Amino acid sequence: MAPNLQLLFFVLCFKIFTSVVLAETDSQDVSALTDVYKSLNSPSKLKGWTSDGGDPCTSWDGITCKGSSVSEIRLSGLGLSGSLGYQLANLKSVTYLDVSKNNLNGNLPYQLPQSLVYLDLSENGFNGNVPYSISLMNSLTYLNIGHNQLNGELSDMFQKLPKLETIDMSSNQLTGKLPQSFANLTSLKTLHLQDNQFKGSINALRDLPLDDLNVANNEFSSWIPNELKGIGNLQTGGNKWSTGAAPPPPPGTRHGYRDSGDGGGGKSLSIGVIVTLGCLGALILTACIIALVSCKHHAPSSHFMDEEKGSSHHGRPRYTPKPSQMLHYEAMDGRKGGEKSVDSDAPVSFKRNSSVRFKNSPTLYLITPEGSTIEGLTSPDQMLPSSPVESFSMSDLQNATMGFSPSRFLGEGTIGRVYRAKYLHGRILAVKEIDSSLLGKGNPEEFSSLVSNISRIHHPNVAELVGYCSEHGRNLLIYEYFTSGSLHRFLHLSDDFSNPLTWNTRIRIALGSARAIEYLHEVCSPPLVHKNIKSSNILLDNELNPHLSDYGMANFHHRTSQNLGVGYNAPECTDPCAYTLKSDIYSFGVVMLELLTGRTPYDSNRPKQEQSLVRWARARLQDREALDEMVDPSLCGLYSPESVSKFSEIVYLCIQMEPELRPPISEVVEALNKLV
Length: 676
Description:
Blueprint: H1 3-22, H2 27-39, H3 56-59, E1 63-66, E2 69-74, E3 81-82, E4 96-98, E5 103-107, E6 118-120, E7 125-128, E8 142-144, E9 149-153, E10 166-168, E11 173-177, E12 190-192, E13 197-200, E14 212-214, E15 219-220, E16 233-235, H4 265-297, H5 300-303, E17 390-391, H6 394-400, E18 409-412, E19 417-422, E20 428-434, H7 445-454, E21 465-471, E22 474-480, H8 487-492, H9 503-523, E23 538-540, E24 546-548, H10 554-557, H11 581-597, H12 613-618, H13 624-630, H14 641-654, H15 665-673
Parallel strand pairs: 2-4, 3-5, 4-6, 5-7, 6-8, 7-9, 8-10, 9-11, 10-12, 11-13, 12-14, 13-15, 14-16, 17-21
Antiparallel strand pairs: 1-2, 18-19, 19-20, 20-22, 21-22, 23-24
Helix pairs in contact: 9-11, 9-15, 11-14
């Protein structure tokens, strides 16, 4: 064979060999695309696709690869039906995903590839909510989920998307207010939100570099910010905008108006401020008069029952109250000649409770609400074995949560989403999915260790871990489900059909929660810092007994820069690593302030000096006259003034600025126990 022919033959063989080697697709990508193919009902129109493996990088329609990894998926306008499956997140190198203009339906996958730069899911039949995993796509520049059937409220997920230039969520059924994190989208040029049911204001958009904004046909109110009026393509019709002069922008916002068109803006602004303040004053005065009349003229038997009427509101089912949870005028201490339960002359004194200060492998102990060991244990050194936890399969959880449907969505925190799982035999559980970005990559032992540690924690006032699931790159914890929801919901999401918690019930909730914290701080060895104590993490059963949740997650909170709860963080906690046992005491003090006042820890709708609950309350807690005005108006005076005074003293010590001045939790438990 001639040398030239030999060289040519060698080159051809090398090319064939290298093309075969390079075309061998990553096995994880093959598995994910095979799942997509099956979820799309295995359409024959996708040439080269198979349900039994294969090599997507060589011959699959719409698939582009870099090396052995899938980088692009282009399946637009192919008439595809079905869903996208649940393994898309395993496509680690995909930057371009376009399945628009098909007939796809079902929920959008909760976990999408974090590497995406371009995402187009528009013009399909997707329903459910917008997946929170979008918040992890730091390189995303284009997002189009318009013309679907998406519903529910948007999560506050836009803090870390600095490159996002285009968002289209138009023609869906999205509701609620715009998340404040929209203000972080510093590169956003195009935003289409038309034909939804959004409400509230669009102030979060005022400082964005938009040149195309469409918010038409929603339920927005308030004013259109002047900063947005100079946008070249602006569509705002079909809303409920306020008329008249707009108020000034809130403190801290920029004032660089695009084109206000108002030569005398300063004068009209001043007049607008005066008119607005006058209206606010009149509204506040009217509200106070109505509240006073309501409290005087409504009998507690018709307005303050502890059992809900009719259908459940805000997810709270009915419950049967104990006698101590009922509101009766004649039973109030010092009101109708009833016997006082608190010694008004006895000062609040904190003494360490020694009944639970044992530390022999304490995470295995079960402590009764009274602080003693459970019946049958003769000494603290006798240990209870940790309860076994069940291993759940992903398919079972998919069925029990209706595919993690929005109708089963319970809430979302810094660690992940929580869903309600309902089984045919009546069992109901709460499923918390841990955000995959918080788990160490390539370290499956971390989740196993988490499950092992949490399963050892047992206390009547702690939400018990029932089981876990770790499949397909997803990690979930399964807990008891508490029918009455969270304390936050009871205190702050009430309506005309809801009934306020009685004062005595509030004390019992505070005491039970304090006992749970005492167990973590002074019984467990080493002590456990909760690090995320807030009213939404205190769950109530059908008898309104509190159960502390989200414990054992402190390591994950170290990995997130999200605020662990606005208004709950102790002043020394400038970052998640600064939390200590005394920081937990401060957070619990804020929860007790919520119980006392009925206010949220931070409320931007209140006057500036009242927005921070701790700052507003600290100076009033030791002023008897001011204290009477602080108490939750929904109680309508049905409480013992002496009990409120003692409770406020406990709160005051817990929210001290200096950590060393805050009492240990066992002393808080002892003081609260005297008030029951």
